[in-house]
């Protein structure tokens, strides 16, 4: 006759350690999604940084010599000028970032849902609690993952630097972490964290509220049922709203993270995220805040569809 200890030992890992199993599966799914959609992320970053008006102050002629190109032409240009595999330049820190971000967000959200907010008397979890919890969890996860995001953005721009005749900054991922830490200290690893967590909060807010709102509207007011078609339309709309809300902060984040720095790790182009915002709008126009919008939306929709299935 088996004892309770024997039954627990023989039970599947998913039942014995549900949170650990959920985190592991989430990490694997995030890695696959990252590899599949990373060329869109690279294209987005190149578009966001291309044409910086602030470079004129440093006497950098790259702004005049490199005209603004759309998503398709930018991606094709990377393949033609740098090679096909360069579409995945920076994918290693991006995977690190997904693991840290997903883990931090999931643990924080579970804690908020079960300990801080709790369910109502009818065991229902209200939408407003999901939104606030999702925003707070996204902020915590993004803050923890900022060093990996910083390295990812800088490595994504290494191919462009090489084409412009500039020296490469890093030999690899671990050299990038070590160099940033040596030049700017621990604080240097969190460069650009303010617009980074702002983006995370805005994206989670737009995603959660729009997805549930659109899905409920479609189920209640159209012949559609709660199926993959409804899920796809809801994800399409939620990704659009999330991208509209989050892209300006994403542009500011990418520019602050990629800007040249002095020997003490201080930025040479921007004093703060507000300064970056003002310079971008004054020098390039308001729509410069939406550079890279299309690949950002397409990538966000792909990740959302994978994550909600």
TrEMBL record:
Gene3D superfamilies, from UniProt?
Mitochondrial carrier domain (1.50.40.10)
Taxonomically, the superkingdom here is: Eukaryota
Membrane topology qualifier: Multi-pass membrane protein
The stretches annotated as Solcar repeats are 21-115, 125-217, 226-309
- InterPro entries associated with the record: MCP_dom_sf, MCP_transmembrane, Mito_Metabolite_Transporter
Q: Which reactions are catalysed by this chain?
A: H(+)(in) = H(+)(out); chloride(in) = chloride(out)
Q: Which GO terms describe its cellular component?
A: mitochondrial inner membrane
Q: Where in the cell is it found?
A: Mitochondrion inner membrane
Q: What is its main location?
A: mitochondrion
- Keywords (A to Z) from UniProt: Membrane, Mitochondrion, Mitochondrion inner membrane, Repeat, Transmembrane, Transmembrane helix, Transport
Its function, per the record, reads: Facilitates proton transport across the inner mitochondrial membrane and may dissipate excessive proton gradient associated with oxidative and metabolic stress at neuronal synapses. Regulates glutamate-induced proton conductance in astrocytes, shifting the energy metabolism toward aerobic glycolysis and lactate transfer to neurons for ATP synthesis. Can transport chloride ions with lower efficiency. The transport mechanism remains to be elucidated.
**Family named by the database record:** Belongs to the mitochondrial carrier (TC 2.A.29) family.
Instruction: State the oligomer form and interacting partners.
Output: Homotetramer.
**What is the designated name of this protein?**
Mitochondrial uncoupling protein 4
Its taxonomic placement starts with: Eukaryota, Metazoa, Chordata, Craniata, Vertebrata
């Amino acid at each position: 006759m088996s004892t309770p200890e024997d039954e627990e030992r023989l039970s599947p890992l998913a039942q014995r350690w549900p949170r650990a199993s959920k985190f592991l599966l989430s990490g694997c799914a995030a890695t696959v999604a990252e590899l599949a959609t990373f060329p869109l992320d690279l294209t987005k970053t190149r578009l966001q940084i291309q044409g910086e008006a602030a470079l004129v102050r440093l006497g950098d002629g790259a702004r005049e010599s490199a005209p603004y190109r759309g998503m398709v032409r930018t991606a094709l240009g990377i393949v033609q000028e740098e090679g096909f595999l360069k579409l995945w330049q920076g994918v290693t820190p991006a995977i690190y970032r997904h693991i840290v971000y997903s883990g931090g967000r999931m643990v924080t959200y579970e804690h908020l849902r079960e300990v801080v907010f709790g369910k109502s008397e009818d065991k229902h979890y209200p939408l407003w609690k999901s939104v606030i919890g999702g925003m707070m969890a996204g902020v915590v996860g993004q803050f923890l993952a900022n060093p990996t995001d910083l390295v990812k953005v800088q490595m994504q721009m290494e191919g462009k630097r090489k084409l412009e005749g500039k020296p490469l900054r890093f030999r690899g991922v671990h050299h990038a972490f070590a160099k940033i830490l040596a030049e700017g200290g621990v604080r240097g690893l969190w460069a650009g964290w303010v617009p980074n967590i702002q983006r995370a909060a805005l994206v989670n807010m737009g995603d959660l509220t729009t997805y549930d709102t659109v899905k409920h509207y479609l189920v209640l007011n159209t012949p559609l049922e709660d199926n993959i078609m409804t899920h796809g339309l809801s994800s399409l709309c939620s990704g659009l709203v999330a991208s509209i809300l989050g892209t300006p902060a994403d542009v500011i984040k990418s520019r602050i993270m990629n800007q040249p720095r002095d020997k003490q790790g201080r930025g040479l182009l921007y004093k703060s995220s507000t300064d970056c915002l003002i310079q971008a709008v004054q020098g390039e126009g308001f729509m410069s805040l939406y550079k890279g919008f299309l690949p950002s939306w397409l990538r966000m929709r792909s990740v959302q569809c994978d994550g909600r299935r």
